[in-house]
User: Fold these one by one.
Assistant:
Number 1:
Amino acid sequence: MRKTPRLLTVAAGAALAMAGGVALAESQYGYGTGTPNVTAQAHLNLSVTVPKLILLRVGAQAGGGDTLNWTAPITWATAPAITVNNNQAANWDGTAPTLGTVTNPAAVPVYAWTNSSGGGSLSYTAAAFAPTTGPLLANIGVASGAGLAHPGGATLVATGAAASTFATGTLVTGTWTFSLTGTALTWTPGTYTTTIIYTATSV
């Protein structure tokens, strides 16, 4: 009885492919002249890469960061409406000046999002005010509205504030209100600046 040739092999297909100068990831063939049917299979592997992403916005969209400004107004009990100029009538009764009402800037909006499986962590660092003859970081209070809390406690510190956390896959928002405290009458006249750097980290 004549045997029907049948062949199903990966090695032979790979050898033929290499002999023809064509490199194939996987190649098979089936061969036969009778029944049953012959087959050939090839596998196709699919790979999907989803990058890890974390987003953070504090304040407006503009680059360079928002600037929060305070003016610590000095006044006295019998002062008229004060305007910028020299040699104006003072109407002063000899009582020592006091600090007038300090207007705090508007609340700062904040947004964060990540797809990291462990969620996200938000921290900050802040440098001391410069020059050093004025307010300290501890003179800046921070109150958090509903949503994402400001890292740390109610006042700024240079480092070591406890981080805030947020969940994965959920856009979190919040508002932070900064306020100025302290004895501004003892600070040397001038302008004092510092920068807070917030860092959102995937967990």
Number 2:
Amino acid sequence: MQSKLLKMRFGLLYSLVAAMILLVVPSGSPAVAAEEGEAFIVLPGEAPRYGGQQGREADITELVATAEQTGGVLGIFRQTIAPKSGPPTHLHGIEAEFCYVVSGQFNFKLGERVVSAPAGSFLFIPRKTPHTFQNIGTEPGVLLFGVTPGGLEKMFAERQGVDAETNQKLMAAHHMQIVGPPLR
């Protein structure tokens, strides 16, 4: 039963990611040229892993697909989020973002609305929408994020071990702006 449920969830996830790409990437866009590039697969344990920034060191980000691999179309990253952890409220100036809750229990703030998102939930976050999330469970939870166009995912690799000022510069370079506190 558990295996069947997982297959259904990942089938749904695949369909949702494909639909998001079709909705967000305009036809005739140069990004569509990625279809002519090389196909790739990332097997379990092969995605580059990065620790969280200062204050969120227990969080882990794995880069599943980067803008370089997808011709700029999208970036996909998986995050394992520690209990009570989550980023400050922020927005992305250029990227639309989507998220699938793989495991755990999260609260998400989208604009002014806070919603509960258990495993199996899908969220779409239009560009320039203030948002944040918090793992409200007692165990680490897993989120699968996508951004389109891709590129933001590189920030997680670039911010390793940097000070607060450098982190702010990296966020600005990746069109990300902090607009409020984390959920508590």
